[in-house]
Amino acid sequence: MITVNLRYMGTNGNARKFAEEMMASGTVGKIRAEEGNLRYEYYYSLEEPERDSFHRNFCGTKSSRKRIISISPISIPHKTKIATINL
Questions:
Q1: Which pTM was predicted?
Q2: Shortest CA distance to 41 belongs to which of 56, 24, 19, 62?
Protein backbone atom coordinates (compact mmCIF):
# COMPACT_ATOMS: atom_id res chain seq x y z
CA MET A 1 0.00 0.00 0.00
CA ILE A 2 1.16 3.52 -0.80
CA THR A 3 0.15 6.47 1.36
CA VAL A 4 0.25 10.13 0.31
CA ASN A 5 -0.28 12.83 2.93
CA LEU A 6 -0.35 16.37 1.61
CA ARG A 7 -0.77 19.51 3.69
CA TYR A 8 -1.48 22.80 1.99
CA MET A 9 -2.09 26.40 3.02
CA GLY A 10 -4.44 29.03 1.69
CA THR A 11 -5.57 32.53 2.54
CA ASN A 12 -9.06 33.90 3.06
CA GLY A 13 -10.50 30.39 3.30
CA ASN A 14 -9.23 29.33 -0.13
CA ALA A 15 -7.72 26.04 1.06
CA ARG A 16 -11.13 24.90 2.25
CA LYS A 17 -12.85 26.31 -0.85
CA PHE A 18 -10.47 24.27 -3.00
CA ALA A 19 -11.41 21.05 -1.17
CA GLU A 20 -15.11 21.92 -1.40
CA GLU A 21 -14.83 22.53 -5.14
CA MET A 22 -12.97 19.25 -5.59
CA MET A 23 -15.91 17.50 -3.90
CA ALA A 24 -18.68 19.49 -5.63
CA SER A 25 -17.18 19.09 -9.11
CA GLY A 26 -17.08 15.31 -8.82
CA THR A 27 -13.30 15.21 -9.13
CA VAL A 28 -12.88 13.49 -5.77
CA GLY A 29 -15.45 10.89 -6.78
CA LYS A 30 -13.47 10.15 -9.93
CA ILE A 31 -10.25 9.84 -7.95
CA ARG A 32 -11.93 7.52 -5.46
CA ALA A 33 -13.18 5.35 -8.34
CA GLU A 34 -9.69 4.87 -9.79
CA GLU A 35 -8.21 1.40 -9.90
CA GLY A 36 -6.28 0.68 -6.73
CA ASN A 37 -7.66 3.59 -4.72
CA LEU A 38 -8.31 2.61 -1.11
CA ARG A 39 -8.89 6.01 0.50
CA TYR A 40 -8.98 9.70 -0.45
CA GLU A 41 -10.07 12.08 2.31
CA TYR A 42 -9.78 15.76 3.19
CA TYR A 43 -9.09 17.03 6.71
CA TYR A 44 -9.27 20.53 8.15
CA SER A 45 -6.99 21.78 10.91
CA LEU A 46 -8.68 23.15 14.02
CA GLU A 47 -5.45 24.80 15.12
CA GLU A 48 -4.58 26.38 11.76
CA PRO A 49 -7.78 27.34 9.91
CA GLU A 50 -5.92 28.15 6.68
CA ARG A 51 -4.19 24.73 6.59
CA ASP A 52 -5.92 21.68 5.14
CA SER A 53 -4.67 18.26 4.15
CA PHE A 54 -5.68 15.21 2.23
CA HIS A 55 -4.73 11.61 2.71
CA ARG A 56 -4.74 9.03 0.00
CA ASN A 57 -4.03 5.33 0.19
CA PHE A 58 -3.79 3.12 -2.85
CA CYS A 59 -2.43 -0.30 -3.64
CA GLY A 60 0.66 -0.67 -5.78
CA THR A 61 -0.97 -1.35 -9.14
CA LYS A 62 0.74 -0.58 -12.45
CA SER A 63 -1.33 2.60 -12.84
CA SER A 64 -0.45 3.78 -9.33
CA ARG A 65 3.25 3.29 -10.02
CA LYS A 66 2.86 5.59 -13.03
CA ARG A 67 1.39 8.27 -10.73
CA ILE A 68 4.34 7.99 -8.38
CA ILE A 69 6.80 8.26 -11.24
CA SER A 70 5.02 11.44 -12.39
CA ILE A 71 5.34 12.73 -8.79
CA SER A 72 1.62 13.19 -8.48
CA PRO A 73 -0.82 11.78 -5.90
CA ILE A 74 -3.65 12.05 -8.43
CA SER A 75 -3.94 10.77 -11.94
CA ILE A 76 -3.40 12.78 -15.11
CA PRO A 77 -7.07 13.15 -16.24
CA HIS A 78 -7.94 14.93 -13.02
CA LYS A 79 -5.09 17.45 -13.24
CA THR A 80 -6.96 19.31 -15.98
CA LYS A 81 -10.01 19.81 -13.73
CA ILE A 82 -7.91 20.78 -10.72
CA ALA A 83 -6.06 23.37 -12.80
CA THR A 84 -9.39 25.04 -13.68
CA ILE A 85 -10.46 25.65 -10.07
CA ASN A 86 -10.28 29.40 -9.67
CA LEU A 87 -10.54 30.77 -6.13
A1: 0.65
A2: 56
